[in-house]
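thread from #wetlab-drylab

HS: before we spend reagent money on co-crystallization trials with uracil, can we at least see a predicted complex? here's what I'd submit
DV: go for it
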Amino acid sequence: VLIVELIAQKQRGESLTAEQIEYLIQGFTRGDVPDYQMSALLMAIYFRGVTDQEGRLFLNSMIRSGKRLNLSAIPGTKVDKHSTGGVGDKTSLIIAPVLAVAGVPVPMISGRGLGHTGGTLDKLESIPGFYVHLSDEEFERILKQTGCAFGAQTTELVPADRKLYALRDVTATVSIPPLIAASILSKKIAEGTNALVMDVKVGEGGFLRDQNEAEELAKMLVRWSAEENVETIAFGTNMDKPLGKAAGNGPEVKECLDILKTGQGDAQLIALSRALGAGMLMLGGKSQDLPSGEKLFDEILDSGAGFEKFKEIAIAQGANPFALDHYEQVSVPKFKHEFFANSSGYLTRVHPQEIGWALVDLGAGRYQSVDTVDHTAGIIFEKQQGDPVKAGDLLATACWSTPRNEKAALSRFEKAMVVGEHKAEDKPLLMFRCDKSGLTKLI
Ligand code: URA
């Protein structure tokens, strides 16, 4: 097979066959298909698209590129949760321990920050000692012992996705819904989960801005996973502003630990955690429907048991117990910068993508995969998009410890927070839900 012919075939908008896709994916994983040809193919796919059938073939070939974990020794329906990525999106840290308290095993394989978005692994690593590079045996043992494990993709788990994702990230070809579905589901199916709740982010802070595209992605996730006996509920949720009061790894961990301890915190962050958590409780067989799942979620969150569970999981993964009880003492930024409103009116917009790139400049994310992360770097919002403000009000505080590109970061933050005369349109958080019975619009 000449790869150049396959690229030309896709360029003309023709479909690839099962054999051709298998050849491309396994060849690329082995290193026989070079990055430049795969990049050209990805760009052709970006403009021409792939059919549902081709998307499934990508998914199946990607799963076959590595090994599959078998979690059947762990009793109960294993339920994972995954987000397509956002800014300030930290719900996994709240939901996973609450679900573990309810008795639903949560095998969570997470990622790192990508582009302008944050990643669960980077957040967890801002807790001193927290170790995420678990072997398959460690992952299974901790999951069995505590009811949850937070792992990183190992070299054997969908190696095709590791390589392909890295290439998509640097060739502006992430935003292809069928490839997003194949990427996410390949990892979830290979990790051995029985069910999945997906948070499909819609808006400027995510990878998909268009609701129709997000709905298509949600439907694909539900249909394709069902073929592998993984039941999925996908929620479409708003990502037109940062989620919660903090963005950046350490500050987000602090926000989550406070919520787990007290049950109190940012209303939208808690509402989203509750909605996703209720879906997981239902899939895990712990509640009959979503409303009773939400009630159970709140009971556990209010009890503070989620905090104790998070501590137990974190300690099993090497975290320093003192750090969990006194997080504000172990994650102290060296530098701070405050942003004030220069006129009165409303905080009209907080542009999430700009905030996300500012965080990368500040050191909370990476320009390149080899970069180290400043875990204290972040921004804490005193006002949220839509709040009334008076001239001189404190809007937010940026914090960091290791100088990187803070001048660029501070000017991006400044630009991202727009004070104006008008309150921006307040979009509802939950936009749609898609499950095996179809798609339901929630607005
Ligand atoms: N997250 C993934 O794991 N893969 C994608 O393609 C997009 C988001």
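DV: The first strand starts at residue 79 and ends at 83.
HS: ok that's useful, forwarding to the group
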